[in-house]
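Today's session is about reading a structure prediction critically. Students often jump straight to the picture, but the first step is always the sequence itself: look for stretches that repeat, for charged clusters, for runs of hydrophobic residues. Only then move on to the predicted structure, which in these notes is written as discrete structure tokens rather than atom positions. Here is the chain we will use throughout the hour.
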Amino acid sequence: MKHKNIVFIAKSLDGFIAGVNGELDWLNAIPNPENNSMGFDHLMKEIDALVMGRTTFETVCGFDGEWPYPKHVFVLSHSLKEIPEKYRDKASLLKGNEQEVLQTIHEKGFYTLYIDGGKTVQNFLRKDLIQELRISTIPILLGNGIKLFDTLPKSLELTHVKTEVFLNQIVQSHYLRKK
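Below is the predicted structure for this chain, in token form.
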């Protein structure tokens, strides 16, 4: 079975995925009256499950509205003791390094994964475990915050697949990892 780990994330022009205190309000700076999913709905049909860290999970739990994911979420955390009761049918908690976590998830029958969250994405990239990057750039300079990319032990070469423009302002680029 072919395994694939996909990053689908938005960043500011200066490379941040959240403000200094985790602020995400800037993600809605561009009006989206038709609720264009900008590839998110397609991604949800393509994947088997999501993998995210505790901070991202807790952020999503704090959003207004319905739970945004139609697929199961695996939450990576060493500090979280259990998933809150209201999300137990939607998410499970996993501990371990990236390879151990992937092995556990694959043994459960999930092979195409959406990897989300700053540290989680950085850790998977550091271990060269990402096959696709789909990055939406929002035309804003945050000046500081949580960076999308961190240092890597070696360069990772990618091939550009396509770039699309949404809402006449958001540029989404899709890359595949060269192997």
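Discussion point for the tutorial: The CA atoms of residues 43 and 114 lie 8 Å apart.
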